[in-house]
Amino acid sequence: MQIPARFNGPPGSGNGGWSAGAFALAVGPGPREVTLRRPPPLDTPLTADGSAFHAPGGELVAEVRPVTEAIEPVPFASVAAATEVSAGYPGFTEHPFPTCYVCGTERPDGLRIFPGRLPDGRTAAPWVAPGDVGEETMWAALDCPGGWSALHTGRLFVLGRIAVAIDRVPAPGASCVVVGRADAMSGRKAITGSTVYAADGTRLAAARATWIEIASVP
User: Fold this and answer.
1) Which of 37, 114, 139, 201 could link 17 by a cystine bridge, Cβ 3.0 to 4.6 Å?
2) How far apart are CA 19 and CA 13, in angstroms?
3) What is the pTM of this model?
4) 59 backbone dihedrals φ, ψ, rounded to 5°
């Protein structure tokens, strides 16, 4: 398998959520947790050894395990509330990865999920499911809104681990809301949750993630 260049996060590497979803689906269906051991390379053939994925030189890229425990959803926010706070998305003025497939402001072909902050500290963004929406898309949509809930501290994080449970993939063009929440900060790690909802509040997918602080933009 390989991560197509279209689905980048930081320059030169795969978006953590989309890549993790691709690794999880390659292992099998059901809730999965993916640990990224290095930034996923783009357009590079990766080999699978059971639930582990390796770069051509043998370097470990990702590991996948099943998830048996429930993933707590982040509470719903309405489309109206998400749209209002999305206008204040910090990435409009300063973005560490403006070409990110999920939240990049310079990606007209991306998911264009721009989370702003609700009064209680959660992030929220409206989202219209694209024509090619699939399970990898749901993993991607759950990624950045969680990250931006930690980025408000002024520290820079990249995804290290994410666990996802998908209830339903929305139809192309469906109106959705993605919410995120920073649950804990410990040293260089941030623990976050994120959830995708249909416009009527039906939960579609939920994630918990661990983010790792980095010193600067790669």
Assistant:
1) 139
2) 9
3) 0.95
4) -65, 135
